[in-house]
Amino acid sequence: MLKCKLLKLYNPAWLLAILVALNGYWFIEPVILHSFSIIPSFGHLADDWSGFIDIIGITQLPRVVLGGGLIIMSIGLALKARLAWTFSLILLAVVCTINILSDSAGLLLLSYSLVVSVLLLIYWKTFDSSSIAAGSLFALTSTGALMLYAVFGTLYLGEQFSSPIMDLPTAFYFSIVSMSTVGYGDLYPITSTARLFTASIIVMGITVFATSISAIIGPVIGGNLKRIVKGRISNVMRKNHYIILGVSPTAHSVYAGLTERGEAVTVVVPADCEHEYPHDADIVIGESSSSNILIEAGAQKAKYVIALRNDDAENAFSVLAAKEVGGANTKTIALVNSSKHISQVKRVKPDVVFSLQLLGSELLVRTLKGETIDNDLITRLFFGENT
């Protein structure tokens, strides 16, 4: 249990989330500092949004959107969301492009963004979850970015509408009406530039709303389908397969070896423990010593139930449960982590007991002493028999 909790502290998702958040702040920092420097000017520009935008700089709006988007996406990265990973890479690519094309490009920021992008690509397997939280973050970021673009663009082009739009509430109203494609007709563009701007709001509004809905609803539907497929259909299809109990390094190695040889494998993973099995693995969540969990994993029709947990007592209890619910042809195998527990584990009568500790130490000693190592010796040592 303690090892499982410690593994979470070393998960790269948190570190990458922090790096991406710092990248976003670094990119947006010039705008923040510039905003603080012009605070004294806010008073006489309170009613002149066009002048306010001119001072801030309309070209700084993309920087605000991109930097803020990276900071928000860092939350999704901490949740290991694949959607946040994808969106972060896209935002970082745009940040790098802007830095390259900018006259005042910062080489240090560009290098940092490239390093973060490479790290995200290296650890892509870490981000394999799909959740409502990640979809909500995407929806919040994309909708907020579009709203900033629409509101400030409307204020900047305020004179180019049928009734000049000079205040924030009216700009917000026009943006919502355009993004939702309602089109009451009380405000409309009268110049080509304003018409093109309004068309862009409509097109992006439809795209953002449709994508945001799918990002939020998708995990819900996908989760239900996954539960149906893995909970109902898989129970029927699990036959002549191997059941691995645990998330130890040995368990992961055995899983990789069996799947590489084309064998069907079901894994039982404790609910409170991280694991490194592939996202498409046939995984049953629960305690391996529970008869109901083993039945769900298809123990009645399994070839082998292999107890590979880090605790010998848990392996022993798992074998007892497997022998209770397993089929007539189901065999049980128990790993003994400490050689002094071999006799205790043998009492539950698994079909095979093996001790990697005994095997490794004896082979090393015999190698150092120059003694003969043959197949019979390895077999006896591997299955916990004393020589």
Automatic annotation (TrEMBL):
> How does the UniProt record describe the way this protein sits in the membrane?
Multi-pass membrane protein
Pfam annotation, one family: Ion_trans_2
Where is the protein localized? Cell membrane
| InterPro entries hit by this protein | K_chnl_dom, NAD(P)-bd_dom_sf, RCK_N, Trk_Ktr_HKT_K-transport
**In its UniProt record, which GO terms are filed under biological process?**
monoatomic ion transmembrane transport
Q: Does the keyword Transport apply?
A: yes
Q: NCBIfam families attached here?
A: PRK10537.1
PANTHER family linked to this entry: POTASSIUM CHANNEL PROTEIN 2-RELATED-RELATED, VOLTAGE-GATED POTASSIUM CHANNEL KCH
Segments forming domain RCK N-terminal: 239-354
What is the protein name stated in its UniProt record? Answer: Voltage-gated potassium channel protein
Q: Say yes or no: keyword Zinc present.
A: no
SUPFAM superfamilies from the entry? NAD(P)-binding Rossmann-fold domains, Voltage-gated potassium channels
Keyword terms: Ion channel, Ion transport, Membrane, Transmembrane, Transmembrane helix, Transport
Membrane-spanning ranges: 12-32, 52-76, 83-101, 107-124, 136-158, 170-189, 196-221
